[in-house]
Design goal:
Layout: H1 10-19, H2 21-34, H3 43-55, H4 60-76, H5 85-100, E1 117-122, H6 129-142, E2 147-152, H7 157-170, E3 174-175, H8 183-196, E4 201-206, H9 213-227, E5 237-243, H10 248-260, E6 265-269, H11 279-287, E7 291-295, E8 303-305, H12 308-316
Parallel strand pairs: 1-4, 1-5, 2-3, 2-4, 5-6, 6-7
Antiparallel strand pairs: 7-8
Length: about 325
Amino acid sequence: MSFLKKIFSKEKKETLDKGLEKTKANFFDKLSKAVAGKSTVDAAVLDNLEEVLVASDVGVKTTLKIIKRIEERVAKDKYLGTDELNALLKEEISGLLSETNLENETEFTIPANKKPYVVMVVGVNGVGKTTTIGKLASQFKKQGLKVVLGAADTFRAAAIDQLQIWADRTDVPIVRQEMGSDPASVAFDTLTSAVKQDADVVIIDTAGRLHNKVNLMNELTKIKRVMQKVVVDAPHEVLLVLDGSTGQNAFEQAKHFTLATEVTSLAVTKLDGTAKGGVVIGISDQFKIPVKYIGVGEGIDDLQVFNKDEFVASFFR
């Protein structure tokens, strides 16, 4: 990708800053109280910082990892003051995100050697899964790519109808069947249609049921197997959509879906309406799955490609 494409636009940055306002305000309000009256980073400050990170939904395991790293830094520099804590936290969180999120992309792109590029989208109902698919379709289309949607969440009529609305709104073709149809059959028909149309991207919606993990696993496995009859290495990406506003519940959802199928990327939605944006840090660290997209607003353009450096900069600014 060219250097120009890696530039994060001013508009995107403003949207990101605004979307993380609640998280940032909540985090720094608690952080300022944690260091009140202290001039050095001592054991009491670290205990308070631990509470702040856990309360910000970073997660216990990731919080302990951050605290340990800061303890090591403090041990090296005996004169580390609380005024330097922000910079130190920023460095450590950036380091954690860099372990999983290697690239700093800014545009919605797909590999040039995969056509059609097949994305299977998973996630429980209500996390913004269908909306994320619609916004993805819109962004890919803006890049000049031909997109086909597949309504394989046949468990709910509302899911099919909602995806149809997004297909109409973005003016992209959709393959659908009646409620109760075999999801794998929908996926097969979608890929067959996409190949005939010489499409660049296929996005397959799937049912978001978690009440029976065995059934979920079997269904997703079957969808994969049937898709491979049309495109041998499909799906190229399994995107798990999580609702950032649910905090720790998002960790549980990630655990269930990573057990049910091989998740390769994450989209964290609804960050604009919550103070729990720290969940992005914890989930990325604990599951070692890259965060690919974040939702920072309700607008069709408010789904952004996750850029770890810009995220951390907005989180701490």
